Amino acid sequence: MVTERKPTFFQSLAAGGLAGTAVDILFFPIDTVKTRLQSAQGFIKAGGFRGIYKGVGSVVVGSAPGAAAFFSTYEAMKRSIPLHDRLAPVDHMLSASVGEVAACLIRVPTEVIKTRMQTSTYGASASSFKAASFVLHHEGIPGFYRGFWTTIMREIPFTSLQFPLYEFLKSRLSIYLDRKPLYAHEAAVCGSIAGGTAAALTTPLDVLKTRVMLDLRDPSKQQVPTLPMRFQQIYVQEGAKALFAGIVPRTMWISAGGAVFLGVYEWAVHGFMSA
Q1: If 0-12 CB within 10 Å is exposed, 13-18 middle and 19+ buried, where does residue 1 land?
Q2: Rounded Cα gap, residues 192 and 169, in angstroms
Q3: Do 39 and 32 contact (CB within 8 A), yes or no?
Q4: pLDDT in tens, 157-216
Q5: Residue 28 · residue 197 · CB < 8 Å
């Protein structure tokens, strides 16, 4: 079997940016439907199927740098963590977790704007720029990071499931085919399975993240529920089913998005390495 070359930091950076932009723009409508299903105001009041590209402007701004930050950090961590090959899943979990923290520093502000635009929080005619200006004026910089820790709490379990499973599936398929690296479409299939599995299992955390980002109360002036309290409120008032609101579109878009995201990444990074 041919030894697989590792991408450089800048190759991972560029390939990650391309992958993030491709998947976020392509699957944005499904994400909008998922967000509206999870909204406390209900799917119809949040916008239904109208204006499913509302908030795409914030995604265009944040997707490339966020994905680039993730992959460059992920690949760098994989090379630097001194663990034995038998502990590769632990290596992948740690690398993906650190990568997600780096990505969330960029991604969360755009997620706040995107989520509020998708649910018409500032009115049906508001633009992403107007929403950002409103957040800055009324909530300051901390407003852009509302739900940061909830997002981290969702993303670390998600990536701790997705990337070890993705790397495992790639490894088994490489052994089966006796070939490294895999072609982009083969890596995409592995990414789809890994992403869909992780998405379904972490849906309750995604529901919590959505509710926190849509809560406009000022924590410095009003008492807001803690995450355990929010979880309990949803379970008691709306039932266990509400914790899995949007599971179908979430699993669909992350499964398909995982194929595009990781397929485009593998295609781009190997293209850069062979250039």
Answers
A1: exposed
A2: 11
A3: no
A4: 999 999 999 999 999 999 999 988 889 899 999 999 999 999 999 999 999 988 988 888
A5: no
